[in-house]
Amino acid sequence: MNELPIVVTCTDRKTSPPEPGLRVRELPATDIRQRAAEWARRLHAAPGRRTALGELYQGDQWRRAAALTKAASGAGFTPRLYVASAGLGLQPVSSLAPSYAATFMPRHADSVASSSAQAAQWWGQLQRMEASRHLPQIAATAGQALVVLSETYAQAMHNDLVALAATGADVVLIGGASDVDGIVRMPANAALRQALGGTLTSLNVRMAASWLEHCTPGHLITPTAKERWSTWSSQVARTERYARQPMSDQAVIAFIRDVKGRYPDYSRTRLLRLLRDKGMACEQKRFADLYTSTIGPR
Questions:
Q1: Do residues 74 and 209 touch, judged by C-beta distance below 8 A?
Q2: Which residues, 6 or more positions from 235, have their beta carbon under 8 angstroms from its beta carbon?
Q3: 29-38, 44-53, 61-70, 241-250: segment of lowest average pLDDT
Q4: Contact 225, 182 (CB under 8 A)
Q5: pLDDT tens, 153-168?
Q6: What digits encode the pLDDT tens for the residues 6-19?
Q7: pLDDT of res. 264
Q8: pLDDT of residue 243
Q9: SS3 36
Q10: Which segments within 137-241 are labelled E, that is strand?
């Protein structure tokens, strides 16, 4: 059958607002273990609608992540898509869950941790929930896995990645935070964005799709595929130089109010990224000061 587990991260954009009580900011200010236990209890007890994860998340990054299954099928694999979530742990996309707000993104109102060590501890607690899947076991069963993680998620899941490498399965990590012995890693490379298209937000999943296109059919890792990838990426890499348009304070404030009015859960970091994706310029500290004066320190 040549099963290929594919792991991607969730997105903060969802098709419905979080259920009452399912925002991390609403948890009591206790230690990680107690907060995680309370979070698990709230997830289990949530009375609202439960949605398949494949339909809960939205946005360009998620559309591209879901499309990886098509790319994998075209490369000779039988894909199985899993989602790594700061609120749910590791789950297949067919799993049902209530809408929630939880992230590993630091300084976000719904961040589960204030450091990478705390994030790893939180992830460990999530993995003890009854419904959570375990990445090393999944990869060992299939003999291979394609893992697509941002830096923050890779830091939170570091222990899982080390255990994954120890299984001896063929594993490709796209993005990530650092190299892990026993895993073939392709770090996020912004110089490939022009060749792959899209925004930096979806760069990792686009790189993963391209890796599958360069694979020897039915084989995740081969010397020939590595050589093809290396040759292609070196040929198409282009360092981007941004020529963004400056904005007045009033224009930045208007942008913040407009986007926060439509998407109240968006973090300050996400707003700045959206602004820059539109070709506009604003220095990070200046944006932070304007955001705080407009929205408040949250």
A1: no
A2: none
A3: 241-250
A4: no
A5: 999 999 999 999 999 9
A6: 999 999 889 999 99
A7: 80
A8: 65
A9: helix
A10: 144-149, 170-175, 184-186
What token pair was written down for 212?
A: 């599958």
The pLDDT-based confidence of 267 (bands split at 50, 70, 90) is confident
Q: Which residues contact 186 (CB under 8 A, 6 or more apart)?
A: 172, 173, 174, 175, 207, 211, 229
Angle at 105 between CA 33 and CA 145, to 5 degrees: 85
As beta bridge partners, residue 148 has 174
Q: How many CA atoms lie within 13 A of 112 on its CB side?
A: 34
d(C-alpha 174, C-alpha 171), whole Å: 10
Which structure tokens are listed for 94?
């067919």
Extract the runs of DSSP E, i.e. beta strands, from 68-169.
78-85, 89-92, 96-97, 144-149
Q: What is the rounded CA–CA span in Å between residue 161 and residue 185?
A: 11
Token pair listed for 93: 């996309």
The total of other beta-carbon atoms located within 10 Å of residue 292's CB is 12
pTM over 0.85: no
Assigned token pair, 244: 């963004």
